[in-house]
Amino acid sequence: MKFLHLISLVAVATTCNALSVPSDGHVHRRSACTSRSVVSTSSVAVGDKTVEVATLSCDDPVTTRDEPANALRDLSDVCDNICTNVCNFDGGVLPPITSDCAIIIDAITILNGSVTDDFSVDPGEMKQLTYGTCRYYFENLSPWTLTYCWTALSQVGSAAGSACFPPTQPNYSEGLCSPADGSWAVG
Ligand SMILES: *[C@@H]1O[C@H](CO)[C@@H](O)[C@H](O)[C@H]1NC(C)=O
Ligand SMILES: *[C@@H]1O[C@H](CO)[C@@H](O)[C@H](O)[C@H]1NC(C)=O
User: Fold this and answer.
1) Quick one: pLDDT at residue 59?
2) Which of 52, 59, 81, 115 is the most buried (most CB within 10 A)?
3) pLDDT tens-digit profile of 106-116?
4) What number does the ligand 2 atom closest to the CA of 169 have?
5) Could you tell me the distance, in angstroms and rounded to a whole number, from the CA of residue 14 to the centre of ligand 2?
6) How far apart are CA 91 and CA 13, in angstroms?
7) Which helix (H) or strand (E) is 50 found in, with range?
């Protein structure tokens, strides 16, 4: 039984790795940004804990991007768009601690209820919430401003974590979800 269990674990890991190279041939654009700057920060209090909220820009020179068709510019709300989970292994970085991630979920619920139920991210920028070992983010890899919903960040980000972290996967440091065109990522 132990042997069979190992086989199934390897099969799952292989599937996950295969997903890092999208079948449409797009290079996964997330890795294109090597250096980021903080645009703005704020924080959300969850009881006596503080979740950091930051907007980051990409410092890298702008590389060639697909120019969107005009019609696509109107499709800036991507809350309900389909994406595929990808697991990333970052040598030495352990999966986040579940209780840290739970604090971020509480912060997302607070933001969802107190300001608006969505947020906008400019081209090339990333909005992230960080607590302890855990980080949730929405990254805009498209050339136009995108809107995303707090509920989707909570649900899609958590689902990517479930697919990539223990007990499902022992080894990955990041789980993210990205659409086929690679125009954004939720992690
Ligand atoms: C956000 O608020 C809506 C209702 O306003 C609710 O249905 C949804 O579950 C909330 N999402 C989160 C993550 O709290
Ligand atoms: C974890 O990752 C390392 C490096 O890729 C690999 O050698 C090791 O077998 C992995 N362990 C498990 C349990 O998947």
Assistant:
1) 85
2) 81
3) 999 999 998 79
4) 14
5) 12
6) 16
7) strand 49-58
Considering only CA atoms, which residue is closest to atom 11 of ligand 2? 171
Ligand 1 center–CA 150 separation, angstroms? 8
| pTM reported for the whole predicted model | 0.78
Three-state SS for 104-129 is: HHHHHHHHHHHCCCEEEECCCCEEEE
Closest residue by Cα to atom 3, ligand 2, is: 171
| Ligand 2 mean position, distance from CA 91 (Å) | 10
Atom of ligand 2 nearest to the CA of 13: 14
Q: Which whole-number Å values give the CA distances from 88 to 18, 92, 155, 158, 176, in the listed order? A: 11, 12, 19, 15, 8
Q: What is the DSSP letter of 171?
A: S
Residue 171 alpha carbon, nearest atom of ligand 2: 1
- Would you say the CB of residue 170 lies under 6 angstroms from ligand 2? yes
pLDDT (tens digit, 9 = 90+) per residue, 153-165?
A: 999 999 999 999 9
- With beta carbons less than 8 A apart as the criterion, state whether 153 and 138 touch: yes
**Tokens for 116?**
């608006």
**b/e sequence 20-47, b meaning 16+ C-beta within 10 Å:** eebeeeeebbbeebeebeeeeeeebebe
44: helix, strand or coil: strand
Q: Are 128 and 136 in contact (CB under 8 A)?
A: yes
